[in-house]
Automatic annotation (TrEMBL):
UniProt-listed InterPro entries: Chitinase_II/V-like_cat, Chitinase_insertion_sf, GH, Glyco_hydro18_cat, Glyco_hydro_18_chit_AS, Glycosyl_Hydrlase_18
Keyword terms: Carbohydrate metabolism, Chitin degradation, Glycosidase, Hydrolase, Polysaccharide degradation, Signal
Domain of life, per lineage: Bacteria
Protein name, entry field: chitinase
């Protein structure tokens, strides 16, 4: 019996090792420096995403002109901090060889070149060549994350409106070409290169991008289940709620998963988004209308500063299972560690790949700790 018991324990250990660890990911913004990377302890993250690589060529941002000088069409320009980040990532890999490092491309404000490069086979080929060449030159990275905001409409973020129905097919074609290019690079380098995407999850956006087809090329889909409320919305609300406040409202994690499952995206590829920051409003009335964003023009408050908000108290909303700091006509919705644990429990029940957060330097360690909770 003792031998059978020992054998059973050994088999259970082998099965446990065979099961992939749930995703615990986080983005780190280049402009915020390398401190958050250097302070990471081994085992805290499965995926760290570096935001963002700059795309040169048609649609490039005006402020990237100097960095893009001499770069080919749809090439990748280095950030001013590229060398320091590469060194920080190499130090991290020595401490934690299992962490996956992904280079994210695009982002809000940096996605305009996608509308141009994805529109033709030549443009896609040029970008794939440049992106895979960048990865070859930076072997510490394990793949690419495509953060095209957003196929069908860029919201005229840089003063030029871009987007058309053709973006739907172009998005899929770009991911297909990237998957082929990364597989070819992987054969040369002897490793698998991941391809992921960060996406807006509302029904409005999903009508513009065929995620069921797109997901076939992707290892993971990072659901940006935050920024559901902010200066761009008419009402004050928690920007990263687990559940929607009203039937039919899809501004929540739960509704986002339902949206993507209807599109045919496997639950096992979906990663739930967590916010390491709040969104605030001032002059909030009973009907949710407000006078202005607070405490700054975009209403953003790093989680590490939430407790320092004077004259405000934490309030839990059972309906949305979300937290806010309230007081003096002000409302700051955010992800409390308790809300993160609830999201983690939901992700497990729904069979999701795991959770990720934007953005690492805004945390004081409590949110990341909650994302690593063994039990909800």
């Amino acid at each position: 019996m003792k031998k059978l018991f020992i054998a059973a324990l050994a088999l259970a250990a082998m099965l446990a090792q065979a099961q992939p660890r749930p995703v615990v990911g986080a983005y780190v913004l280049a402009e915020h420096g390398t401190d958050a990377v250097d302070q990471l302890q081994p085992g805290r993250l499965t995926h760290l995403l570096y935001a963002f690589l700059l795309i040169c060529g048609e649609g490039q941002r005006a402020q990237d002109g100097a960095a893009c000088q001499g770069q080919p069409a749809f090439g990748i320009a280095p950030h001013a901090d590229q060398a320091s980040f590469s060194a920080a990532f190499e130090r991290l890999k020595k401490r934690d060889p299992q962490v996956q490092l992904l280079a994210s491309v695009g982002g809000w404000g940096g996605s305009d070149p996608f509308f141009h490069l994805a529109a033709s086979a030549q443009g896609r080929a040029a970008f794939v060549k440049q992106a895979t060449g960048w990865l070859r030159a930076h072997p510490v990275f394990d793949g690419l994350d495509i953060d095209w905001e957003h196929p069908g409409s860029n919201g005229a973020v840089n003063g030029v409106a871009l987007g058309s129905p053709a973006d739907a097919g172009n998005y899929v074609a770009l991911l297909q070409d990237l998957r082929a290019g990364l597989d070819a690079l992987g054969r040369d380098m002897g490793k698998h290169y991941a391809l992921t995407a960060a996406i807006n999850t509302t029904r409005e956006q999903l009508a513009r991008m065929p995620m069921g087809r797109a997901a076939r090329e992707l290892d993971l889909v990072f659901m940006m289940t935050y920024d559901f409320a902010g200066p761009w919305t008419k009402k004050a609300a928690n920007h990263t709620a687990l559940r929607s406040a009203r039937p039919g409202d899809d501004t929540s994690l739960e509704a986002s998963v339902a949206n993507l499952r209807r599109e045919g995206v496997p639950a096992a590829k979906l990663v739930a988004g967590v916010a390491m920051y709040g969104r605030g409003f001032e002059g909030v009335k009973a009907d949710g209308s407000y006078a202005r964003p607070w405490p700054n023009e975009d209403g953003s408050v790093p989680f590490k500063d939430i407790d320092a908000l004077a004259g405000m108290k934490a309030h839990y909303d059972k309906r949305t299972q979300s937290w806010a700091m309230v007081g003096g006509g002000r409302f700051v919705g955010y992800d409390d560690p308790r809300a993160v644990r609830a999201k983690l429990a939901f992700a497990r029940r729904a069979g999701l790949a795991g959770v990720f957060a934007w953005e690492l330097s805004q945390d004081n360690g409590e949110i990341l700790g909650a994302m690593n909770a063994a039990q909800p």
